Amino acid sequence: MDRALELARDLGHPRTGSEHLLLALTSLVGHESAIREAVQKAAPHGAGAAADREALATLGIDLDQLLSGIRLDQPPAKEPFFPLGAAKARERCARLSPPLGLDAQAAYEASLRFALARRERTHRPEHLALILVTLDPGVAWTLDTANVNRLALAHHLARTFPPPRRNPLLRLERRLGSTIRHRDLTTRYQRTTGRTPVSSVAAFIAD
Questions:
Q1: What are φ and ψ of residue 100, in 5° steps?
Q2: Within 13 Å and on the Cβ side, how many CA atoms surround 30?
């Protein structure tokens, strides 16, 4: 997260989005120069807005006109009761330099829930990388702009960082609960960002 904030500052961007998290993780996902170039193209509104712009253009809607005078990254009107302190956390993210966008916040939260769903003992960068590549529309736009095959990258990450193979009971429990846990993390992601995830991570929760 610190690296993503630093990259956004160095690039002179007004917000830190999911695309900056991806750029901070190029040691895992590769393609640094192509991704950096795509991140530059996404400014100033970010890769999520760039993806929205392309989707709405097919309907004849000008997103830039809609965004005129509107402040991006408005938090949800009503935060879920759990986890406690979500509203204060959003306020802290808004005070960062540059502010941390809702897409980056939602992806980071989803990666924590992903690690928990896989019953892992630590939260690591590969969890965030997998969530970004599979769920986030802005990252999908960034990878497409960088001519990187998103699904191939997701499966490469999944093969490189599989869930822990501890005992048959744990593996069965993960398999049985994967759908519910995936639905929980994607619902929270969608509630925070207002965007529909581009694909599923359910298959990556259980081995």
A1: -85, 120
A2: 9
Return the structure tokens found at 171: 């593996």
Residue given tokens 């990254």 in the structure block = 73
Q: What is the predicted pLDDT for the residue at 57?
A: 83
- Indicate the pTM of the whole model: 0.89
Whether the predicted pLDDT of 140 surpasses 80: yes
Q: What is the mean pLDDT of residues 20-45?
A: 94
Around 39, how many Cα atoms within 13 Å sit in the side-chain half-sphere? 26
Collect all residues with Cβ–Cβ distance below 8 Å to 163 and sequence separation of at least 6.
118, 119, 120, 174, 204, 205, 206, 207
Dist. CA 21–CA 19, nearest whole Å: 5
User: Between the CA of residue 59 and those of 13, 52, 66, what are the distances in Å?
Assistant: 28, 11, 14
Looking at 98-204, which runs of residues are DSSP E strands?
Answer: none
Cα R_g (the chain), whole angstroms: 17
- Residues 23, 139 contacting (CB under 8 angstroms): no
Cβ atoms within 10 Å, residue 193: 25
Phi, psi dihedral angles at 95 (to 5 degrees):
-90, -5
What digits encode the pLDDT tens for the residues 147-192? 999 999 999 999 999 988 777 877 788 778 788 888 889 999 998 9
